């Protein structure tokens, strides 16, 4: 386990439809609903506070992406995304549950950095308003913040991907 002082984070994000958002985050992701009004909803996402704010114009904005991995498949990582780092078995269970609920992954499930520092399973998918979520798990959680030892290590990992 990384040596960090974990505290819950808070994130607010735009949505176009509160009813769809409530259904997705409660019934698909498994969040508990907190406070809400006719303009926003708070959710408990694995002990973190996320707030969906009704703002249809912002919710429909294009999310740019970045070519983080230079792999054989032309998949780019959405620049704006959020999610949770799970234990490996939790991640595998979530992948299966999301598949059973018909969620289409935009990326993954895939394992990155196989056999290297930071080996991780990852999935990306969109909520009904187009917000991008990423859930991941590290094979060795102690490597979560461990840097590549040299730039050539990073280049080798990126080129392998």
Q: Could you tell me the strand content as a percent range? A: 25-35%
How many individual helices?
Answer: 4
Q: CATH first level of the largest domain: which class?
A: Alpha Beta
Query: What would you call the structural class?
Result: alpha+beta
- Measured as a percent range, the helix fraction is 10-25%
Cα gyration radius (Å): 17 Å
Walk me through what this model shows.
Residues 7-138 form the VOC domain. There is one protein chain. With 161 residues, the protein is α+β, with helices and mostly antiparallel strands. The protein folds into two domains: 7-58, 2,3-Dihydroxybiphenyl 1,2-Dioxygenase, domain 1 (Roll), CATH 3.10.180; 62-161, 2,3-Dihydroxybiphenyl 1,2-Dioxygenase, domain 1, CATH 3.10.180.10. 24% of the residues lie in helices and 34% in strands. Strands 1-4-3-2 form a four-stranded mixed β-sheet. The protein has a four-stranded mixed β-sheet with strand order 7-10-9-8. Strands 5-6 form a two-stranded antiparallel sheet. The longest helix is centred in the middle third of the chain and has 13 residues, at 88-100. The mean pLDDT is 85.
